[in-house]
């Protein structure tokens, strides 16, 4: 494996990186600041961005930073289901058995949230795929006039078309309750270089393992998306290790990118 060839102590460019491998760049810090405000003061937060931009990484850091004695998060990503099924999935995530009938499942979620010693945060990933009825029911979970504060808080995570979904007239009530909105952008060129260097250093390798111009090429081919940067960088490392080369130069990069573009 290339980690042995390059004498690395850990694998860089992982899809699901451990917390200690994550670079808290400016984009991430800005997102964390907004989500921290939402966790204590908001009703709904909306996190959007293109596929592979790092929304899951931001979510992972947000959850890890929450005081465990004050907040409890429940995560769902199977969103292309009917509203009743989504409500049942929420109940199952809470560790309970769903009751019979939609109205009873609805009440079950609210009872759990109101009786909990924790502030409940419901995280809905792939929210842009939610059916209209499910969006309406999620809004109703937060909208009781008799609660001093919302029984639970809702974090919607999705692709860039999610805000347009919420602008439809039937979802304006939900949109108007969004306290925090954050669009996670791709890396700038400088951020890409810093990210590659960070991953290499955290894995026990030198940031000189990749030629400087190669890092710029990776940024251009990946359009600043961390997931694609990971994929291209990994293929470069594999190609270099297979050829027993000590570093990734432009020739290694061009061969690797030709292989990557076949997929």
Can you walk through the features of this model?
With 263 residues, this protein is an alpha/beta fold. It has 12 helices and 5 strands. The longest helix has 17 residues, at 226-242.
Beta fraction of the residues? 5-15%
Strand order of the largest sheet: 2-3-4-1-5
The major beta sheet can be summarized as: 5 strands, parallel
Helix content: 40-55%
Total beta-strand segments: 5
Structural class: alpha/beta
What's the quaternary structure here?
single chain
Short description:
With 263 residues, the protein is of the alpha/beta class. It is 49% helix and 11% strand.
Q: Which helices and strands occur, and which strands form pairs?
A:
Blueprint lengths: L1 H4 L20 H16 L2 E5 L6 H11 L5 E6 L6 H11 L8 H14 L3 E6 L7 H9 L11 E7 L3 H5 L5 H5 L1 E6 L5 H14 L9 H11 L3 H17 L7 H11 L3
Parallel strand pairs: 1-4, 1-5, 2-3, 3-4
What descriptors fit this protein?
263 residues; alpha/beta; five-stranded parallel beta sheet; 12 helices; 11% strand
